[in-house]
Write a structure and sequence with these properties.
By secondary structure, the chain is α/β, with parallel strands linked by helices. The protein is globular, with a radius of gyration of 18 Å. Bound molecules: S-adenosylmethionine (SAM). S-adenosylmethionine binds next to strand 5, strand 6 and helix 5.
């Protein structure tokens, strides 16, 4: 019997992965979680039918969400990760000895527990003593925080279901308030390619631009997300990702990375014309 995981990118376009085994399924109060073992992508898990993390390309996403801000401000000490229950972002953050604390706020504890069971490749550092896990809504968690984080990473699902509030103006305002003077916000910024994702990309950028002094977008190549062309937002009170890039200081750390490097850092902020035009739309 042949088993395929299908993800619809539009009504008329889909992506398929041949599956060896459907390992696990569960419906939590927040979403449906599935784990699959596949031939080409190793173990992967989906939330409500959307690919989240797989063993083959997770390094691209986690390199780019973490090392870009860390190479702009290597003095980052206090970090908040919202979402990210698979642990991949935390894994990369724990490689920096200078980071003192990492708060991980994941709404769905089951995502964490199941990734600890089935995806050690990403969840292996959740036990680091600097990591504190909070199983609650990131929107509520951040609402009373002021000047406490040097870096906030919103490692969220798309703006549907529990992730919806992580793309609102109020949430971004609260992130601004929770950040220190040199604070940086990195957020999952959707994709410019298919219409539904592009709409969310534009909406997110418009809101962030209203609040943050510096507001940029950078790209990375993610084979298993719709179209493969995905973006993160870089918003900050004072630091510019290119002018303030501490290339030499970051390289001196000697961290071995598979996707990120100093040229990628610079190049990722050079966007295609159609993307710039969409982001600049009023
Ligand atoms: N790399 C993934 C992607 O973009 O496809 C996202 C990684 S991660 C698995 C996303 C996590 O965000 C999920 O585990 C989900 O439970 C969590 N999440 C969604 N909404 C949230 C909220 N309001 N507060 C905290 N966590 C949330």
């Amino acid at each position: 019997m042949k088993l395929w995981f299908d993800e619809l990118y539009t009504e008329n376009t889909k992506f398929s992965i041949k599956v060896d085994e459907h390992i696990y399924t569960e419906r939590t109060p927040f979403q449906r979680i599935d784990f699959f073992k596949s031939y080409d992508y190793g173990m992967f898990f989906t939330l409500d039918g959307y690919m989240m993390v797989n063993e083959k390309d997770e390094f691209i996403y986690h390199d780019m969400i973490t090392h870009v801000p860390m190479a702009v401000n290597p003095d980052i000490k206090r970090v908040l990760v919202i979402g990210g229950g698979d642990g991949g972002t935390v894994r990369e953050l724990t490689r920096y000895e200078t980071i003192e604390s990492i708060d991980l706020v994941e709404i769905d504890e089951r995502v964490v527990r199941l990734c600890q069971k089935y995806l050690p490749i990403t969840s292996s550092k959740l036990e680091d003593e600097r990591v504190k896990m909070h199983f609650e809504d990131g929107i509520r968690f951040i609402s009373d925080k002021e000047n406490v984080y040097d870096l906030i990473i919103v490692d969220s699902t798309d703006p549907i279901g529990p992730g919806e509030g992580l793309f609102t103006l109020d949430f971004y305002k609260n992130c601004h308030k929770a950040l220190s003077e040199n604070g940086i916000l990195i957020n999952q910024h959707e994709s410019p390619y298919y219409e539904r994702d592009a709409k969310e990309m534009k909406r997110a950028h418009k809101k962030l631009r209203e609040i943050f002094e510096i507001c940029k977008v950078y790209q990375y190549h993610m084979p298993t997300y719709a179209s493969g062309h995905w973006l993160f937002g870089f918003a900050s009170k004072s630091l510019d990702p290119i002018k303030d890039h501490k290339k030499d200081q970051w390289e001196a750390l000697g961290l071995k990375t598979k996707y990120y490097n100093s040229n990628i850092h610079k190049g990722a902020f050079a966007l295609p014309t159609y993307v710039i035009e969409m982001l600049n739309e009023k």
